[in-house]
């Protein structure tokens, strides 16, 4: 589902960035996390700020039992479509929305073990949902060759005996628990959970895989088609179809080739907008250094993140 966002006021959740590939997600004056892309682009660090989340801080208000009952009574056969519309509507009304003007896409991600399924075109791949809450406060995301694609929690691990987790476990068993909503951030090549930490914990306890929705902004880019290449493609098709010893292509295959050759629509790719700030790197380093000598943080990794060279 692609939506066009117009006249959206600046959200309270924003990504600020500056020199040496530093960035952070903020809400008003509160930093949610600090991030840094490694200098040689082998990965990125994310340092989560452990904060006490209040309802007023949440990107989307907590889903209520009335909203679950409304979903159940709707007899909606497409669960993903229903909750996609719900989340978009909630974000458009939220005082803490991450949306900004432009095109956005919300789509269902595949899990790592689903890679072999057909139709992988423009599909997000999410890795290791069972390890979300085992990541440390400071985590290095190893991109390797194929990227990272992990889920990143913004909150502390929910307790199993929390009332909210117990309630979501019942909804998982009733097959009416909503998907987990995430935001794809390019500079991390990872998916930030923006709604559904306790739902995810409930899914994990019940040993059920959740549906994961990915929200990402899009950038349109126009690339003029090479007319000479188009003529070569047509010529090649004619030769192939008339060659006595070569198998003829099907009509569907020919149509796909011609559509690609003549399609002049702009291509789209995910993009995450950040706001450049003056003297950002110095401010960023001073903030991150406050975590030095903190027992639960790997100090060598913290130093590597700060130095980044």
What's the arrangement of secondary structure elements?
Elements: E1 2-5, E2 13-17, E3 22-27, E4 30-37, E5 43-48, H1 65-73, H2 79-93, E6 102-108, E7 110-111, E8 125-126, E9 138-142, E10 151-152, H3 163-173, E11 180-185, E12 190-195, H4 197-205, E13 212-221, H5 227-242, H6 251-262, E14 267-270, E15 275-276, H7 280-288, H8 299-307
Parallel strand pairs: 2-15, 7-8, 10-12, 11-13
Antiparallel strand pairs: 1-6, 2-3, 3-4, 4-5, 5-9, 6-13, 11-12, 13-14
Helix pairs in contact: 3-4, 5-6
Describe what you observe in this structure.
- This protein has 2 domains: 2-221 and 269-307, no CATH class; 227-265, no CATH class.
- 23% of the residues are buried.
- With 309 residues, the chain is of the alpha/beta class.
- It is 29% helix and 24% strand.
- Strands 1, 6, 10, 11, 12, 13 and 14 form a 7-stranded mixed β-sheet that branches. A 6-stranded mixed β-sheet has the order 9-5-4-3-2-15, with helices on one face. A two-stranded parallel sheet has the order 7-8.
- A hairpin with a 5-residue loop joins strand 4 and strand 5.
- This is ParB/Sulfiredoxin domain-containing protein.
- It comes from Marinifilum caeruleilacunae.
